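Illustration: ABC transporter.
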Amino acid sequence: MAQALLAEGLAKRFGSVTALAGIGLEVAEGEVLGLLGPNGAGKTTTVRLLSTLLRPDEGRAVVFGYDVVREAARVRELIALTGQYVAVDEDLTGFENLLLIARLLELGRAEARGRARSLLEEFGLADAAGRTVRTYSGGMRRRLDLAASMVNRPRVLFLDEPTTGLDPKSRLELWAAVRRLVDGGMSVLLTTQYMEEADHLADNLVVVDRGTVVARGTADALKAKVGDRTLVVRPEAPHDLDVIHAATRQVAPHALVEKDGTVTVPSADGALMSAVLEVLRERALPVDEVALRKPSLDEVFLAIVGTSAPAAPLTTSEGGSA
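Result:
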């Protein structure tokens, strides 16, 4: 598989503050790399360096072999960036927004119109093509913003927290749009605060904290490092919680009562689950759910970066947080 993006030892300082302290990552062609970290960890600064908006103080990065500093113009022909805030004109229609971008990219009139119509169809906006963007929902605006990034047919897409503020339905629609792009060969670097989003979209993950990489791997690999599976027992009736806890402790002395009204047993396996079920059956205790679950990506994230409040986000001269 070809390498779409490679970064080695990226460092960036803003005055006395070090935003990045030697980050390295790589994205294969047709892969989604999730870049995770608390506020101020360096995610947005990394995206700006890789997308030629900032120059690194140290290190190097290449996009399909082109250096982001020495060959920035060529790199810009290969990439697209969708930031945290929608960058479309509310006073224009969806079609006019895409047509304007296509013409700015020097597509001929007929080609520009065809490209705009094609993208509106691809992103499920054809029926709203003639409406002004101010009448669009948040999800529609996000999809139009993503469609605008596709006008020049990029090979690498930077998504910087693309679903911030979207409702669950709109988030799912955007995920589906991104997955279609990846299925078509697009390479994506995704930053997000939503662990479910990273779990759903990313093939590999890099976790950064205070400007350095603190973990990398697939979601399953990172979950395995954090801990084993947990047995979860949910009573059918909340008033049976203490009784079920006592029964479970007969075979799992380290069983815990959780705030969500469940009994959990860390580091459980199938044999222990069978033993717990047998005890509950013998005591005729009705349960609503018994399951073995892996650690969530939220739990992985907290285990890696800790639960302490991060430092205040670094605001760069270009605007936005690091």
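Reading the tokens back as a structure: The longest helix spans residues 168-183.
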